[in-house]
Amino acid sequence: MRDHLVAxxxxxxxxxxxxxxxxxxxxxxxxxxxRRLVESTPPDATFVTREMVELLVVHGASLSGxxxxxxxxxxxxxxxGVARSIAPPPMFTLLSEGFVPTARRRNALEEYEELFRxxxxxxxxxxxxxxxxxxxxxxxxxxxxxxxxxVIVMLREIRRTAAKGHLILSVExxxxxxxxxxxxxxxxxxxxxxPDEVVGLRLYLGREKKRIARVEAIERPDVASNxxxxxxxxxxxxxxxxxxxxxxxxFMTEPWxxxxxxxxxxxxxxxxALAIDHVVIAGDLVDGIGIYPNQERDLGIGDIVEQYTxxxxxxxxxxxxxxxxxxxxxxxxxxxxxxQPSLPKELLKVLPDRVRSxxxxxxxxxxxxxxxxxxxRSFDDLIPAIPGASYERPTDVMKxxxxxRHLGPIYGGRMPVTPQSxxxxxxxxxxxxxxTGHAHTFGVDEYRGTLLLNASTWQAETEYQRMRNITPxxxxxxxxxxxxxxxxxxxxxxxxxxxxxxxx
Length: 504
Ligand SMILES: [Fe+2]
Ligand SMILES: [Fe+2]
Description:
Layout: H1 2-11, E1 15-16, H2 18-26, H3 30-40, E2 47-48, H4 50-59, E3 92-97, H5 108-127, E4 147-160, E5 167-172, E6 177-182, E7 198-205, E8 213-219, E9 237-241, H6 253-264, H7 270-273, E10 276-281, H8 304-316, E11 323-326, H9 345-348, E12 355-357, E13 362-366, E14 369-373, H10 379-385, H11 394-404, E15 433-436, E16 442-447, E17 450-455, H12 463-467, E18 476-481, E19 487-491, E20 498-499
Parallel strand pairs: 1-2, 6-8, 9-10, 10-11, 11-12, 14-15, 15-17
Antiparallel strand pairs: 3-13, 4-5, 4-7, 5-6, 7-8, 9-18, 13-14, 16-17, 18-19, 19-20
Helix pairs in contact: 2-4
The chain binds fe (ii) ion (2 copies).
C-alpha cells in the first residue's frame, strides 16, 4: 500500500512527507483520503505534509484555506489564491528515509527477493511507455517474436566476448531471463553498465533458430532532459559538509575553527555566512571504532560514546540559528549495511537538541528545495566498475547514479546491503540537490536540473588512505543559495578562509 500511495501522489506531482505517509497508512481508507487530499489542495502544491493530513482527518477541513502550508507553489499560479505570505514553505520537511524499520524481519533471502522486485517495479514504472522502447514485452514472450521488441530488465552479469569484444548481458525480468548481445562500437556498446541496474533494451530478434537477441539501444531510467531546477521562493542558504571523523587524530581542528569563525561572520563574506539557515552533514560524523585494520593507531578518542560527545561539543559551536541535519556513514555507530537507520537515541542524547538525525540515505526538503543526502559508500563498488571513474571526480559517478536512478545497485560488492522489502537506494523523485561524502574530495557539478555536491571531509590524510592511494581534498564546504541555486565553495584548508565563486 505504501508504494501504491507514493505512486499515486507521484502521478499528481506531489511529494509526501514521511510523517504524512505514516498517518495516511494508519487511516482506515488511505487511498480515499489521499484522493481527497489531492482534490482539496491547489494543483500546483508540491508537498503533502502531516498537518494537511491531520486537518483532513480531524476536521474534515478543506485544505485550500489559510491554514495550509504550500511549499513550492507560487502565489500567482495558484488558482485558489493561497498566498506565500500566509503560507511560507516549511523550513525542513522529511520526505523519506531509505531504511525501513521493521519489528521482525523475515528471512534475509525473502527480503532480498522483495528488494530486487521493488527496485525492478519502481524503475519499470519510469521506463515503460517510452517511444524508444517500442513493442515492449515480458522476457517470456520473446521466443515468438521476430524483428524489433523491447524489454525492461535487470542486468545480472556483464561480460565481453574474447574474440570480438562484444558485450554479452545476462538479463532478467519477473517472467524469465536470457542473454543478449551488445555489438561493440555502437552507442549502446560504449555505455558503462553495472550489474543489478535496471535498463530498457530495444532488441532486434532474427529468424535463425539459435539466435541471440541483438541490442540496438539501451535506455536508462534517467532524469528528464528538459527538467529545470526548482528553487526556493524565499531567501535561504544551506551549508553542506561531510566526513567530520571526530575522534580521529587527523581531525582538522584549525580549519574547523576557521569554518566556525566564518559561520559567526568573523571571516570573509559575513553577508553570505549570516544568510545560512541549514547545515547538512552527509555521514562519517565520527571516526568510529574497528572500522579498518589497526584503526586504533589513528584514534585520538578511543571510546565511541566519547566520540559522539565530542561531536556534540563541536556541533554546539555552530550558531544557534542553524537547522542541523545529520546522517550516518560507514564509520558511524549504526549497522554498516545500506540503507542505514538514523543514529540511536542514546547517542542523540549527547548531541544538541536542534540536530535532526535522519537515516542514510534520506530525502528532505529545505525551504521547498528537495535534497537527497547519501553518504556514498557505493563509490567503493561503482568506481572500480566504471572505466575512468575515480574518487577525485565523485560527481561523475553521481551523474551515473542519476541516470540509473539508483545510488548503488551493485549487490555482493564492498557495500553490504540491508535486507528489506523496499529498495531504499532508489533516486525517486529526482532531487534538486544530491549530496554525498565518503570520497573525501570536493566536487560541484550539475546534471539535468540536479545540483551535485561531494562535500569534502574534515579529516587530513591518514596512513590507511595513503595505503589505498586516496588523496583527500579536505576542509572544504559548499554553500548553496536555495533561491538561485548558486553554489559558493568555502576553503578552510589554508591559513585563511577562502570564499570562491561557483566552482561548477
Ligand atoms: Fe569518511
Ligand atoms: Fe565513509
